[in-house]
Amino acid sequence: MKREDIKVCVLRVGGTNCDAETKRSFEELSVQAEIVHVNELVKRRSLMEYNALVFPGGFSYGDYVRAGAIWAKWILAKLGKELKAFVEENRPILGICNGFQVLVEAGLLPGFEEISPYPEAALATNFPPGYNCRWVYIKHENKEKCIFTHKIPKGKVLRMPVAHSEGRFIFAKEKEKQCLERLYENDQLVFRYCDKNGEYAEGEFPANPNGSFHDIVGICNPEGTIFGLMPHPERCFYWWQQPDWTRRERMPQYGDGKLIFERLVSYLEKKG
Amino acid sequence: MIGSLYTRRKTSFPLFEVNTLEAGEQQLLEISQEMGIGLNLQEMKAVQEYFRKRKRNPTDVELQTIGQTWSEHCFHKTFKGKIKFDGAEIDSLFKTYIVKATEEINPSWCFSVFEDNAGIVRFDKDYGIAIKVETHNHPSAIEPFGGAATGVGGVIRDVLGVWADPIACTDVLGFGPLDYDYEKLQSGVKHPKYVYMGVVAGIGSYGNNMGIPTVNGAIYFDESYVGNVVVYCGCIGLLPLKKFKRKAKPSDIIVLAGGKTGRDGIHGVTFASAELTEKSEEISRPAVQIANPIEEEKLKRAIIEIRDLELASAITDLGGGGLSSALGETAKKFGCGAIVELEKIPLKHPGLAPWEIYVSESQERMLLTVPLENLELVFEIFKKEDVEATAIGKYTEDMVLRLYYEEEKVTELDIPFLFEPPKAVRIAEYKPMNFAEPEFPEPENLTEALMQLLSSPNIASKESVIRTYDHGVKGNTVLKPLQGEYGGPNDAAIIKPLDGSWKGITVSCGMNPNYGKIDVYWMAASAIDESIRNNVAVGGRRIALLDNFTWGNPEKPERLGSLVRACEACYDFATVFKTPFISGKDSLYNESPLGSVTPTLLITALGIVPDVRSAVSMDVKAPNNLIYMVGKTFKELGGSEYYKLKGFLGKTVPKVQPDQAKKTFEAITEAIDLGLVKACHDPSEGGLAVAAAEMAFAGGYGMELDLRRAPRKDINRNDFILFSESNSRFLVEVSEKSREDFEALMNGKVCAEIGRVTKTPRLCVHGLNGGAVVEASVGDLLSSWKRPLSRGV
């Protein structure tokens, strides 16, 4: 598929607020990206017009009940069939921050056995509690499954900003070990929090900004086509978005966030 | 409302006629008090006269409308009224000092100032920047979370109300000491820690939920804020100037959009125009509105689309006074009248009386005027965003405001009458304070003094607060509030608002309430200087200012006298620096059972940078680079953090030497443009020593300085040189390579090389006799600075 023909749907609803910069990131790669309100999608459009779907960051429906919960249920109720078809065709879905919370609440992630009717994990309130806006280091853990990080060397340390109050990835306590094993078995683990040198955070704040289980930053489904993460790649696309660019004599042209968008586009190009 | 003063009309809903015509003076005041409209006798008499001419009694809706419109909060009686001061009469503080400064400077780049709820300056040939800073002190004192959140919501609507897309927020807060003794609290006053937690959470919640980065701010602690919390909320927006529509005409439809109307926020403005008392909690709780940021987020999307399609002829926000204020002000602005059917307004719950509907300050509402032919399309856009919008009336040719409820006329008032309240005449007095300079020997250990200063609440890192605000959303924050890995305190934030351009917006602020305890004139001058130098330090220029006054009861002559003095300084220094005022807001009557607020003037500075790539941060960059001190240090420790640490207030506050300051600012800008500046930071609270420590630990290197080389006048003690807070100074890092160019540029200005950046992470300062007077590891300095307000406070 030609790059210019790729169409990405950046979905939004009341409370979504990172849609513009997400769209910009795709456009910077010469891909068509459209911000679509879910009302619009339900009434006039079809998900199947798009090659990829993004749930951007924000506070959908004010994050009342649980972050992402209402939007997830809304999507399943109104767009469930279409979404299932979308997933079955292995069309990629990316969830950033609130988008990740939506994917988990909708049962799309971790999605051990296809789409789960109930959430199999949760993005719980941070520990230490409260909203936290800071830059973190994350280490790439995926062998080859995740199409959003494919060809990024395993073990590579990236730097991205987080900004959330509910990002502590957890499994049910009694299934924790077993679920983690499955993540590894299926090559679903994508990023873990670490320090500058790539040493795992081991739950220590602030390297692990939210107390996430096993320092989990983001995971994909067993097929590698659905990916959710708490940090914001769209906020570290350009060099001047880095927190310390004024310290460097020479900055790389882009930030690490670009990699995620690039890998997705490259996958779509090859997919045909 | 009972008794013979009120007659209920025979309607299916509550509507009273108020027997004003026959009322004597005592009864007029009784009416004002019982109805909670806050009008004084002179004003009530004007109302009586108006209705006597019309040979009828006013309805409760009419009296409420007048009360809201004439309140201090809506009409700014003090700033627009007459003041007798020093044997002369000032006709409007606002016109005499604030507007006059802008008119004299008359910059070509001011697009619309003092016209609407936000000022607009040009950004480039197509775009403008709108900015507004609001005060929300009273509501935050009663309900910290809700008060602060709705403060942010309100100021964002001010920016939307000039068709601008909100792109950044700035918040400056003042609290009582967090360790305040519970025993000293009085009934009706909440503990500072409770207020602090609530306010900070409220601000974060609103901005974060709406996806607007909070990029700038400050937190200040003072005893007088225990009873009077200070909450300044600011918002900056971007608009294509061509899309700025402000031309409503008769027959345009009035559309109310956004949240429903309820009983929250009744009499917010009258409440804000009175002192806080023990009973405020009980009486005024309904005056605090309830925030719903997601509603406003949706509203924002719809409004921006309506703007881009040019479907409406005017817009305004509903803030203080609710509909009564928004409708009346719009009608007046366009020389129209209006007819509104109040029963059409969507309600949160049934049973609101017409007057309650009309004055309710329920949040997240905007008022648009739409030509009939565009109405359908406008409704469609609101619907798409799940926002309720209702046509509630239309503008008319005559200048009369007519309100109906279920076909019953409940109000008929002439618009000109509504906006010509009797001018307040107030008396102001000013007596210079007579303080003494403290006498104490120079302490032997100045390292310890520096550590203590770094840990003092006004200087210590506010990271634990700043990180609860999203400062990166929208992805356009080029210079963040916390610099680099160690979270150094940047002097100003820079936003890059347009994708296709490197041009940036710089935002900074200045506030020195402690100086005002000695001399408000120099406090105001210092705030202006500080806000400008913060902006200049990162590369900002072409600076516009906003003034926000938080003062005590202006009916007390000495409070008003200090207000006049501060306004005089505003005029004097805005004109010197050629920095026009473009917007502002005053909050008076900040008095509680614990006393008056200390006069607190916030100056916000909005500048531009031609190219964000040349922006400068405050952290030192590399060992062996040179450190220059630009600007002179005087023995000006009155009101300083150092004196406070020693238990003194002092006498001599920092002054501003305008000519010298201007030269310094221009030189710094030029040096930054030539790429000669590696880092730049302004000494403010805690002076040179604190600024140097911050630069060092933010960069992770050490610094070796020599006080003997620091430019100074009449000052011969190490501690005074280190901690004096003289204005218009900068610490600048320059590489050896740029030394010659920088020194050539600084020729003829006050500037001296005072030391170097060192690889060893230690701050070492040599005193006047050559020996080290400060010697500390950068790590220790950093933890002294970070610890006090770290998480878990």
Q: How does the major sheet of chain B shape up?
A: 7 strands, mixed
Give helix % range of chain A. Answer: 25-40%
Q: N- to C-terminal separation of chain B?
A: 46 Å
By secondary-structure content and strand pairing, the structural class of chain A works out as alpha/beta
Roughly what is the average pLDDT of chain B, rounded to an integer?
A: 94
CATH architecture of the largest domain in chain B: Alpha-Beta Complex
**Poorly predicted sequence stretches spanning 5 or more consecutive residues of chain A:** none
Overall mean pLDDT of chain A stands at 95
Number of domains of chain B: 4
Q: Which structural class do you get from the secondary structure elements of chain B?
A: alpha+beta
Number of strand elements of chain A = 11
- Please state roughly what percent of the residues of chain B sit in beta strands, choosing from under 5%, 5-15%, 15-25%, 25-35%, 35-45% or over 45%: 15-25%
Number of helices of chain B: 27
CATH homologous group name of chain A:
Class I glutamine amidotransferase (GATase) domain
Gap from first CA to last CA of chain A? 4 Å
Low-confidence stretches of chain B: none
Number of strands of chain B: 37
Spatial order of the strands in the main sheet of chain A?
A: 2-1-3-4-11-10-9-6-7
Oligomer: heterodimer
Please name the CATH topology of chain A.
Rossmann fold
Please give the CATH class of the largest domain in chain B: Alpha Beta
